[in-house]
Design brief:
The complex is a heterodimer of chains A (about 375) and B (about 140). By secondary structure, chain A is an alpha/beta fold. Chain A has a 9-stranded mixed beta sheet, with helices on both faces. A two-stranded antiparallel ribbon of chain A has the order 5-6. In chain A, helix 7 crosses helix 11. Chain B is globular, with a radius of gyration of 15 Å. Chain B has a single domain, classed as Beta Barrel (OB fold (Dihydrolipoamide Acetyltransferase, E2P)). In chain B, strands 4-5-6-8-7 form a 5-stranded mixed beta barrel. Chain B has a 3-stranded antiparallel beta sheet with strand order 2-1-3. Classes of the chains: A alpha/beta (about 375), B alpha+beta (about 140). At the A-B interface, helix 5, helix 6 and strand 5 of A face strand 4, strand 5 and strand 6 of B.
Chain lengths: ~375, ~140
């Protein structure tokens, strides 16, 4: 899915906090106001709302309208966890193209902390609640420990290589005042961090936190000069591979070829990647399955590249969830807002030089053993 | 031993009741098997995810399998499991070819490697756990 005429014209992030001091709606309102400001619009311009938030139910996109005093003519709520915001943007672009809305506010986020998350994870969905939680599965950490070990044993992937993701992203977070974790991290600290779900250690894990992200989808001719971002390719895939429990892939490889064909360029032509970083091992799988390196060769690939904002393959240039914190479903949007920030040349102290094209990927909705949803979006600055 | 009431309960459904009962009453792993295509299923479903047939029967698994991969969970557990930590959580391939995630009881997780054979707990121990649970083959 691509669009020549409709794209992203605003973006914003709320403050991130370890302990929630506001509701979901409070964080989303902060992010929405920042996004509207960046687009030069007011709340009255919004006639569509979409949201991805695993903690918002029983509220939804319609009740957000009530809370915010808006009267939209189109709403949508994502069901793909951390893959959801990419899909929300795809849907919003098509809603605007079809005339069902003219200006969509896309939201994602959560008001949560570590203790809240530990409890909620046991009820994430039915297969998790009924067939994983009764075992004492250790939340997502236990499941991704199984996947990480399998990748290491199948392909010889080493923690020394995967650790580069956490370490370089932490360096990126050093240039992001909104990141909750900014203290520089060494590879030694990553390797020797406390065990959580062996082989997963502390710095393989995200910090559940409170915050929100927001985007404005509208016709690109409404963008402020030089501030529009075009969606040149986007795709989603769910429950792939069918029947596997702890797969070393998530669905990106199923749409990769068509995705790059649609974009008109490939992975060698992007200036940065914003990948869904619930765990370094899943970032590694995304990099492999989106074609940056052959399957199973991520270890050598990571060893050969710098993932810092000023490196040769900038990854999660604001620090990602691993350093900013995970705001529930907002973890699926933080990569899009950071991509838009970079493509508008507003990256500040972490601006990627010459950023014109960037890849964002999403992953989420953990079911019986792994994330069920994969998504990706190629973004390009409007010249 | 009887079911530890502190463990999170499994919601009983029309699809999973025979499996839950077989484990609790007989220490048996009961697998759904599609009447149409013969596929074995876990977890229990309303339709066969291979061919969408709506009729499935039940067959007892032989109860043995192997560890495909695993993690050893030390932190982030509810209190009842924290008291039993570390928890060895494994992807297990049953002899019937079915994949499941389950707990493997093991006094020394440090000696566990992928590929090791596992067997369902004997009935007396099985009853404490709400879902099929394993130990290393030859243990006990």
């Amino acid at each position: 899915m691509r669009s020549e005429t409709v794209g992203l014209i605003g973006y914003g992030s709320s403050v991130y906090e370890k302990t929630a001091t506001r509701s979901e709606q409070g964080y989303m309102a902060l992010a929405a106001r920042a996004a509207l400001d960046s687009a030069g619009l007011s709340p009255r311009d919004i006639d569509g709302i979409s949201v991805s938030s695993t903690t918002l139910p029983p509220d939804n996109a319609v009740t957000l309208a009530e809370h915010f005093g808006l009267s939209p003519r189109w709403t949508s709520m994502g069901n793909a966890g951390g893959a959801g915001s990419v899909i929300n943007v795809m849907d919003a672009v098509q809603a605007v193209e079809s005339g069902r809305a003219s200006c969509v506010l896309c939201l994602a986020g959560a008001a949560q902390d570590t203790e809240f998350f530990k409890d909620r994870i046991n009820r994430f969905n039915r297969s998790v609640a009924d067939y994983l939680a009764p075992h004492g599965f250790g939340g997502m950490n236990g499941l991704f420990g199984i996947i990480m070990r399998k990748h290491m044993e199948t392909y010889g992937t080493r923690r020394e290589s995967l650790g580069r993701i956490s370490v370089d992203q932490r360096a990126n977070a050093g240039q992001n005042d909104n990141a909750l974790l900014r203290k520089p991290m060494t590879l030694e600290e990553y390797l020797n961090a406390p065990l959580i779900a062996d082989p997963i250690r502390l710095f393989d894990c995200v910090l559940p936190c409170a915050g929100a992200e927001a985007l404005i989808v509208a016709p690109l001719d409404r963008a402020q000069p030089g501030k529009g971002v075009r969606v040149v390719a986007a795709a989603e895939r769910h429950n792939h591979p069918v029947g596997e429990v702890s797969p070393l892939r998530g669905g990106w490889e199923t749409f990769r070829e068509g995705f790059y064909d649609e974009a008109g360029f490939g992975p060698e032509d992007v200036q940065f990647i914003q990948a869904y970083d619930d765990y370094p091992i899943m970032v590694a799988v995304q990099i492999e399955d989106l074609g940056f390196c052959p399957k199973g060769e991520i270890g050598g690939f990571l060893d050969a590249h710098s993932l810092r904002w000023d490196g040769d393959l900038p990854l999660n240039t604001g620090g990602g969830q691993l350093s900013c914190g995970q705001t529930g479903g907002g973890g699926g949007m933080i990569g899009i807002t950071e991509a838009v920030r970079q493509l508008r040349g507003e990256g500040g102290g972490r601006q990627v030089p010459g950023a014109r094209r960037g890849l964002v990927s999403g992953y989420g909705m953990v079911g019986y053993g792994h994330g069920l949803s994969a998504s990706a979006m190629m973004l390009e600055a409007v010249a | 031993m009887s079911l530890n009431p502190a463990y999170p309960p499994v919601r009983r459904t029309p699809e999973n009741a025979p499996m839950l009962d077989a484990w609790q009453q007989r220490g048996e792993i009961l697998l759904q098997r599609c009447d149409s295509c013969g596929a074995h299923l876990f977890y229990p479903r309303a339709v066969c995810p291979s061919c969408w047939a709506e009729t499935t029967g039940w067959v007892p698994a032989c109860g043995t399998g192997r560890i495909v991969s695993f993690s050893v969970v030390h932190k982030g557990l509810p209190d009842v499991f924290m008291a039993e930590a570390p928890i060895l959580l494994a992807e297990i391939e049953l002899a019937e070819g079915v994949l499941m995630i389950a707990r493997v009881l093991c006094a020394d997780p440090g000696r566990v490697t992928s590929g090791m054979a596992v067997a369902a707990l004997p009935l007396a121990e099985a009853r404490a756990f709400p879902l099929p649970t394993f130990r290393l083959e030859g243990a006990g």
